[in-house]
Write a structure and sequence with these properties.
Elements: E1 2-8, E2 15-19, E3 29-38, H1 41-47, E4 58-60, E5 65-73, E6 85-88, E7 119-123, E8 127-129, H2 136-140, H3 142-155, E9 164-168, H4 172-183, E10 187-192, H5 195-203, E11 208-211, H6 218-225, E12 230-235, H7 242-248, E13 249-257, H8 270-275, E14 279-282, H9 288-301, E15 307-312, H10 316-325, E16 331-335
Parallel strand pairs: 9-10, 9-12, 10-11, 12-13, 13-14, 15-16
Antiparallel strand pairs: 1-2, 1-4, 3-5, 3-7, 3-16, 5-6, 6-8
Helix pairs in contact: 3-4, 6-7
Length: 336
Amino acid sequence: MKVAWVETVGSLDNLKLVERPEPRPGRGEVLVRLRAASLNYRDLVTTAGGYGSHQRRENLIPLSDGAGEIAALGDGVTAWKMGDRVTGHIFPKWLTGPPTEARLSASLGGSADGVACEYRVFGENEILRVPDHLSFAEGAALPCAALTAWVSVIAQGQVGPGQTVLTQGTGGVSLFALQFAKMAGAAVVATSSNTEKLERLRALGANYVINYKSDPDWGRTALKFVPHGVDLVVDIGGGETISQSLRALRMGGTISVIGVVAGARHDLNVPVLILKNARLQGASAGNRDQFAAMLAAIAQYQLRPVLDRTFPLADLRAALEHLKSGRHVGKVCIAI
């Protein structure tokens, strides 16, 4: 089978397409013929070795998010049948409950092999059914970005009608956060860096849009739309955006930090954090139970992920470079 392979992490120059034997499922396992994958910012970090001791540094199959169909069943598997359309859970040991070191000890495309390959073996509890209305590429868009947005907006954020969510940019998590917020009956303030992307955000349902490039004080501008401040900020920037996120936030609101696209370090304005009684909370995907709840909601509301471009597996490096460029709107996908 064809496999994208990083012999030593540190550079995209080390990413190769190689042939490897097709695996076989053991007891309690299934073999999935992967049909599509999608990219996340974390894939750029893992191929660069940015997670240090928390990831495999040699002989890594990258990418956490994929979807396909069951091609073989191991002994004892009764919950699945041949041909079922499934997607894998990014943290296969995190089935329920809060995160712990043990539950997050394995991550696809990080400490464990990912899905940039034609076939992969999963434990029978490590996969979930792709909603019937979605394509393989759309199903592959869900495990990391969609689940992180779901946890930020719904599971942790408890967003509902009458509330307001602020999202940043047009990447996967931000667009899913916008979609889930609208699904929950909330208003959305969305930021981006150019007019064309802002129009896409309006088309997806954003109530207010702000160009953060031409308006660096966008946190204050958000208060013109929502004078009392927004209830939740889904912050993908990290270091360089936290201060503006805090400015836009209402008293007692929450900033869900899910990325460090704009930097990993920042001098937090602690007095303002205290004054606003604000909550700063990290979010990194979620457990299997939360994934199942999200998939049920997606099926009920017939929600579709926003897809950008699709590249063949042989062009994975070009796909990662496209993601890194920031030109995308929605999920960058891989056809396998």
